[in-house]
């Protein structure tokens, strides 16, 4: 078996290859040729073309159907199109004299259709992430790990990426609706605005669902970080996975920020559009009151019949005042308490204050220890850290305060993730204490 050394491996220059004469045009055919391919795929989908096979006549008919009305091309032009498609899109069976599509054509068609169709499915993403995690756990050897990194994870990258693209496209299309309506006002702007607001609210909810579906990628990341048997090639592949997971999180953050910027402006626009209508209604109502109201003999204003006259009722309170004669009923003098200061009391209070200060100092040191562990290892088990603090300080207040402060910091941070499950954690040296399993991970 011949093993190629790293320096002997042939490097592939993609840009150089695709710049070669005719290559780009063969990979991405002209509009009329590409549309004819899509038309044939649709006929295969609806069973008009059986077994995914078709004749040269079917190809010519597809080209003619895509062509503009009253515009026909000679067969030589169609034959030239077919010849170009045979490089990456078409294959030909000499025996049956029928064409069928190659794998590149299937991927070209399916990706274009899925992109435009935009099928939002966070459940599928969650299943893919769980499948990848289960498969990664089984990869015990270095070669198996490399296969997972190069083949399995790469296979699902487009599926993981396309859901974010779908959400981003939804937002762009919603905003474009407002721009198009301003130029072509086929329906009321207020109706379009309401529709856009509903779409953006839906996109925000979908963004949350998608973020939950991607949470399993953090498990993948932690498993890869814990591997100790890697070499330089595996490290590079793991770095690519980390980069991709970071890319997903950044795209989701970008979508959330985009929605946070757009939605207040939409609501502000709603308020501006609704204000003149509201003011107009108030003005009409006031004119009605002025025109229809009358004054009766008691000089009271009587509102029109369609408006109920308000009935005002003011209670007149009755107070009974009893005066207390201070000379007859003098107040009892209050005995003033005197505090005696002694050296013992001063020392006792001083020790109490010093104890509190020492506690605060220890709490701060343990908080710094937890932060340093997260920075160094990317994660920390808070339950075990709690028992460790108890063992070293024998002070429940210090342990509780340090752990609670770290949890609060994780909740407020964009780079830390707090996780908890109801698995009971105990320690032999603290029999009377049990905790749920808690940890903080760096995203």
Characterization of the model:
With 443 residues, the protein is mainly alpha-helical. The chain has 3 domains: 12-112, Arc Repressor Mutant, subunit A (Orthogonal Bundle); 118-277, Methane Monooxygenase Hydroxylase, Chain G, domain 1; 343-442, Orthogonal Bundle (Arc Repressor Mutant, subunit A), CATH 1.10.10. Helix content is 64%, strand content 9%. The protein contains 14 helices and 8 strands. The chain has helices spanning 14-18, 23-27, 31-45, 56-66, 75-85, 103-117, 122-138, 142-183, 189-213, 216-226, 232-292, 343-377, 382-393, 396-412, and strands spanning 53-54, 90-93, 98-101, 294-295, 301-302, 379-381, 416-427, 430-442. The strands form 3 sheets. Strands 1-3-2 form a 3-stranded antiparallel sheet. Strand 2 and strand 3 (98-101) form a beta hairpin. Helix 8 packs antiparallel against helix 9 and helix 10 packs antiparallel against helix 11 (232-292). The longest helix has 61 residues, at 232-292. It is flat and about 130 Å long. The model is unreliable at 1-8 (pLDDT under 50).
Please summarize what this structure is:
The protein is mainly alpha-helical. It is built from 14 helices and 8 strands. The chain has 3 domains: 12-112, Orthogonal Bundle (Arc Repressor Mutant, subunit A), CATH 1.10.10; 118-277, Methane Monooxygenase Hydroxylase, Chain G, domain 1 (Up-down Bundle); 343-442, Orthogonal Bundle (Arc Repressor Mutant, subunit A), CATH 1.10.10.
